[in-house]
Amino acid sequence: MSDTIAMSDVLGRQVVSVADAETVGEVRALVLDRQASQVERLQVAGRKRSAELVDWNRIDGVGPDAVMIKAGDDVHPKEAEDEPYVRGDIEIIGAMVLDTAGYDVGTVSDLHIDASTGEVLAAMTATGRIPAERIRSLGTFALVVDPE
Amino acid sequence: MSSPAPLVLASELTGRPVVAIDCGDDVAEVKDVVFDPVSREVEGFTLNKRGWFRGKLKATLPTSAVTAIGPAAVMVASGDDLVSASDAPEVLQDSHDSISVLGSRVLSRDGEDLGEIADVVLETGASPRAAGYRLDGDGGSVFVPIGAQMALSGDNLVLPEEARPFVRNDLAGFGAAVDEYRRGLDHAIEREETR
Asked: What is the rounded distance in angstroms from the CA atom of residue A117 to the CA atom of residue A136?
């Protein structure tokens, strides 16, 4: 069974460790792979330089009020590939949607994610839904998609 | 596809971001468009850095690496497709000669001064080419198609007689005029060959 979750719903949700029931933080940012096909990590605490993250595969479940992670020591400091996301160079919500023909075709309003795997299912814009098959990459300039 | 490639002024491409499809980053921005005024082919682009540390980038972008020229960005498959200036084709190494047509006067076949070349009209699409020039003259701006046998010296260009009816006052009408002009030239060549 795979539930779809919206990125906008997950942002701000508290993050709790199953092992010791402690709140480790709240979801501050999502880190994707360069192809924007997968959520790799969640930023759960700190800002910029001090950012702390949890790998998606250490998530026990995404509940309606909290993201449950397996243990408190799953939280680790940022690594180089997290920097564009924790510094805000890449803002997923609000990113320009650019098609491969070089046309600005909208702005990302939300991301739909598979709650169990972290797979990106679609990007939402004001005018519609861009399925994962059309998404090519996400970078500092835009979410690049194949034209319709 | 038979629909004509969209036209764009070379000056409008300056500052346009170059975006890599494989990572979504703006890897550079266009500084100058380099084209051959005789063959009309766009050879490529010289580049500037993006962001706060703007300045000349020691890399160039050959036309062969461009996958699309869109209104929001020039697209390349990957940032690796930028070619370091020392490895680039010679024409891309020094852009000063390339747009040397700017400022040249264009005269009609019968000696009327039509104006000075102020900009270059480019056909985008799969093989970008120069389609015409924007001239600034006494009567404002006009667009003239680049003729196959347009005489060119350091100072002047002479517009062939047959191109004269295709001079336009606006870029929108110029696209259709260029197509019509080219079709006419192709027919002329065919007639020549079948004779």
From this structure: 19
**Chain B residues within an 8 Å CB radius of A103:** 70-72
Question: What confidence tier does A2 reach under pLDDT thresholds 50, 70, 90?
Answer: low
Q: How many CA atoms lie within 13 A of B115 on its CB side?
A: 17
- Chain A residue numbers with beta carbons less than 8 Å from the beta carbon of B72 are 96, 98, 102-104
If one counts every other C-beta atom within 10 angstroms of the C-beta of residue B71, the result is 13
Q: How many Cβ atoms sit within 10 Å of the Cβ of residue B39?
A: 10
Mean pLDDT of B153-166: 80
Give the whole-angstrom CA distance, residue B187 versus residue B154.
31
Confidence (pTM): 0.86
Q: In this structure, which amino acid lies at residue B135? A: L
Contact A36 B75 (CB under 8 A): no
Restricting to B residues 56-75, those with a Cβ less than 8 Å away from any Cβ of A are 67-75
B23–chain A Cβ distance below 8 A for any pair: yes
Tokens 């190494």 belong to: B93
Q: Cβ–Cβ contacts within 10 Å for residue B189, how many? A: 11
Which of B37, B128, B120 shows the shortest CA–CA distance to B75? B128
pLDDT tens string A48-104? 899 999 999 999 999 999 999 999 999 999 999 999 999 999 999 999 999 999 999
Which residue of A96, A144, A146 to mutate against B (max B Cβ within 10 Å)?
A: A144
Q: What is the pLDDT of residue B2?
A: 44
Q: Are A139 and B20 an interchain contact pair (Cβ–Cβ within 8 Å)?
A: yes
Q: Please say if the pLDDT value at position B161 is more than 90.
A: no
